[in-house]
Each structure stands twice: as structure tokens, then as C-alpha cells.
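Researcher: Please predict.
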Amino acid sequence: EAGGWLDKRGGARYLWGMTKERKRDFALLLAATFFYFTGPMSVAPLVAGYAGSLGAGEALMGLAGGLMNGVSLLSRPVVGNLADTMGKRMLTIGGAALMVAAGAGYLLAGAPWAVLAVRVLHGLGFACCSVSLSTWISELLPRERVAWGMGLYGMMTAIGMAVGPAAGVFIYQHVGYGCAFVTSTVLSAMLVFLAWCVRDRGEALPAARTQERPHRLRIVEWRVVPVAAIILLFAMPYMATQAFLVPLAEAEGLTFSVGWFFPLYAGVLVVLRLGLGRVFDRVPFWVFLLISVGCTAGALAALTVMRGFWMMALAAALMAGGYGIMCTVCQSTAILLARPGERGLANGTYYIGIDLGMALGPICGGVLFGHAPLAWFYPAFLLTLPLILAVHA
């Protein structure tokens, strides 16, 4: 049975039963996952405001916030195929190097168009790292442990997704944009170092080299498209919250620090993912789906009436039970649906959904923030929930 860290019959036994070299590689890849997400996420809540400080309007601010993920989306088909045909270490280091260059590029941007150009670079690097790292980790695990292992991967991305924005907002508020961008650059440089230290090169599986048409570029894994559509719709409310939580709080005159939303979200998600270690491999997809839809609805309702810290904490906890849990469930499902040697393509398809949600969330948020009453911002995203149920049906 698959279990959590403390279950001697399950996940922990499998992890500590691996060879010393494989344990080392697994730990390094989990650490690398933290830095891969923390770097770009540390600037995610700042980019819209930074573009605005350089003269961008509301719509352009929203575009700057979502462009990185839009670029990632367009590059997913190529990156997904590369992950199945070349070494994961080479692809990860290349993507991390692009993110290092992007972090430095923000410091040199002097106009909104320059910020958009840097976001393109950041998006390319982010796409390479997301597919290569998740595929790399999944290939270290047997099929019956995939959901457990991807839960740990998802836990590290959740921590990075929370620590990154919180650190970025804190540094910006106390030092300024420049120091926040330097921090992002250093975090991405740590990813380069950790990926280089992994001994397993993540070479392509033999099945990926012996397909009937090995040179044909496949855009998506069609079996995974419904899963990608579901995670797209879950991602939109979260990413809109991430991009506009600070501007909304300032516009509404809230006096408490909304930056705590992200570490609270991460803390609850870590507890949930560790506590549900063996459940991820046992409970049907639809059960998680219904629970997460309810949690997301509650989170959006709490954010709508939020006027104090504890309501924000409730919203963060519910968002962890919604978008946070479904990231793990959808990704492990996508991997299990993949054909042998095509986990990279399946991961790429899953991330297409993530990228669309991450791009459309801030863009829709920018339109709402600029042209609708503030009270409509979060309720508008409730429209995603019946669409999720329709896709699953």
C-alpha cells in the first residue's frame, strides 16, 4: 500500500529502500522543484504593479501578469516532446538559465514593452523546467507510487508558490522592486546548481525512441485533455487572486498584511498532502473533484467578504483544499493515463491547462479590476465551477 512519510508499509519504506544514489537524486530534485517555483513566483504578484509604475494601463498590467504563462502554453508541445527524447537534466539546466536571464532582465527594463519581452523569456524557461522536472521525478517512481511521489512534488511546488509571492511582496514593501528581482535571479541560479548535481541524467526511456513515427511532433496527449481543462478552470481563480490580491487590498483600504495569504495556503497544503499520502492512490478522481469544487466556492466567498486576517486565513485554507489538492490529483492522473515513454507529453498537456489558467486568470482579473466594481471580482470567478463539473460529466 502507498503511504506517507511515516507509514513503514508504504511510501517511506519505498523511499528509504532505494539505493543511496537514487535517494540523493530524489532529494535533490525535490529541492530543485522548490527553487524552480519560488524564483518566478516571487515576482508574479509584482509584475503587474511594476508594469504600471512604468506607465502601463490596467489591461497591459494584466497582460504583463499573465504573459509568462501564455508563452509557456505555446511552447508546451515542443517542450513535452523534448522531455521524452532528450536528457531531463540538460532541459532543466537550459530552462533555469533562461529564468536567470529573465530575473536580471527585470532590473534593466525601463518601459512596459521591455517588461513584456522579459516575461516571454521567463515563460520559455518556466515551461522547460516544469515539464522536465516533473517527468524526471515521475520516472524515478514505480507506477503504484506515482500519485504519492507526485504529491511530494506538488507539495514542493505549493511551498514555492506560497513562499515566493510572500517573499516577493515582503521585499518589495520593505526594499523595493530591484531587490525582489535580484532575489528571483538568485533562486533560479540555485536551480541550475541543484540540477547539475543530480547524477541521473534523466535520459529518454527506450519506448520513446522506438515509436512507429519517432520524428512526428505531437501537440497533446488526447487522453489527458479533459484533465488539463479541469485544472485550467481551477487555476483561474487562484492566479487572479495571486496577481490582484495586493492591489485589491490597497483599493479597499485593508490594513492587515494580505501577503500572509500565500504562506498560510502553503502550510495548509503541506499538511493536506502529507496527511493524504496513501489516499491519493486509493480515492477516485471524482471524489477529490467534488470536494475541491466546494472548497473553491468557499474560498471565493471568503475573499469577497474579507475584511480581517482570519477571513483571509479561511480563504487560504479553502483554496488549498481546492486548487492545491487538484494540482496533485490532476497531474498524477495525467501521468497514469500516458502511454509508455510519453510521460513528458502527458505532463506537457497537463501544463497546457495550468498555463492557460495562469494566463487567463490575471488577464480576466485585469479586466474586472479595471472595468467592474471591486465587489464583483471574486464572485465572477464562481462561473468556473459549473464548467468544471460539465467537463467531468
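Model: The radius of gyration is 20 Å.
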